[in-house]
Recover the amino acids of this structure.
C-alpha cells in the first residue's frame, strides 16, 4: 500500500515536471537561459546592415564585388540567363539554328507566346482579342508585330531573349516556365517568322 502511494506521488511529480517543461510558448519577461550556445552569439556581418571596420571607410556591411569579379563556376548559357557580354552588348544566339531547334522553338512559341502574340506574331492572340472585348481603355497595350516591327527584326538575339526572360511592360517574365535553352530556341523561331513575313 505504502509503495503504491509512493509510486503514484512520484508519477504525479514526474507528470507535473513534464507538463511544465512543455510550457515553451508562454510569453516571458526575460530571455530564456541558453545553456547550449551552438553558434548563436558571434560576430557576423548582417546583410543590409552597417559594420564598423577600419578597412572599410563607408561603414557598409554588404560589399560590392571588386571590378572584374567572375562567377565561381563559369556561367552556363544552357541553364542561366546569360544574354549580355561584360560591356552590356546583347549576345548572339548560342544555339545552332538547325531543324530540331527551330521546331522546338515553334512548339514552345505556340504554347507560351501565341496566346497573346498569335501564331504569326501579329499580336492577335486570344488573350488580347478578349482584352479588347472587355475594355479597350483598361488594356492600354501596344503590342508590336513580332515578325514585322523593324526594331525587333534588327534587334540582336540576346535582346529578344532578354524580353522573354524579364518580360516587358504588361508582358510577364517567362523565366519560370521556359528554361534558357528553350528561350534561345524560341528566338530562332522568331527569326523564322520574321523572314517569312518580310
Ligand atoms: C500575356 C500576354 C503575353 C504573352 C503570353 C507573351 N507576350 Fe510578349 N508581349 C506582350 C505585350 C502586352 C507586349 C507589349 C509590351 C509593351 O507594351 O512594351 C509584348 C511584347 C513582346 C516583345 C516586344 C518587346 C519590344 O521591345 O517591344 C517581344 C519580342 C515579345 N513580346 C516576345 C514574346 C515571346 C517570345 C513570348 C513567349 C515566350 C511572349 N512574348 C509571350 C504580351 C505577351
Amino acid at each position: 500500500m505504502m509503495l503504491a502511494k509512493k509510486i503514484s506521488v512520484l508519477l504525479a511529480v514526474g507528470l507535473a515536471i513534464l507538463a511544465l517543461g512543455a510550457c515553451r510558448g508562454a510569453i516571458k519577461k526575460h530571455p530564456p537561459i541558453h545553456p547550449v550556445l551552438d553558434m548563436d552569439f558571434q560576430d557576423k556581418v548582417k546583410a543590409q546592415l552597417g559594420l564598423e571596420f577600419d578597412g572599410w571607410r563607408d561603414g557598409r556591411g554588404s560589399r560590392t564585388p571588386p571590378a572584374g569579379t567572375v562567377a565561381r563556376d563559369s556561367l552556363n548559357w544552357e541553364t542561366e540567363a546569360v544574354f549580355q557580354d561584360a560591356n552590356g552588348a546583347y549576345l548572339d544566339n548560342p544555339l545552332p539554328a538547325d531543324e530540331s531547334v527551330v521546331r522546338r522553338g515553334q512548339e514552345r512559341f505556340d504554347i507560351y507566346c501565341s496566346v497573346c502574340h498569335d501564331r504569326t506574331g501579329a499580336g492577335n492572340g486570344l488573350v488580347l482579342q478578349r482584352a479588347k472585348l472587355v475594355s479597350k481603355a483598361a488594356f492600354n497595350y501596344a503590342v508590336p508585330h513580332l515578325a514585322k516591327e523593324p526594331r525587333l527584326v534588327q534587334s540582336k538575339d540576346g535582346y529578344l531573349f532578354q524580353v522573354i526572360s524579364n518580360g516587358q511592360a504588361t508582358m510577364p517574365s517567362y523565366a519560370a516556365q521556359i528554361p534558357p535553352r528553350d528561350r534561345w530556341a524560341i528566338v530562332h523561331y522568331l527569326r523564322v517568322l520574321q523572314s517569312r513575313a518580310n
In short: The chain has a mean pLDDT of 87. Residues 112-113, 115-117, 127, 141-144, 146, 152, 160, 163-164, 168-171, 174, 178, 186 surround heme C (CB under 6 Å). The two ends are 103 Å apart (CA to CA). Residues 15 and 21 are 10 Å apart (CA to CA).
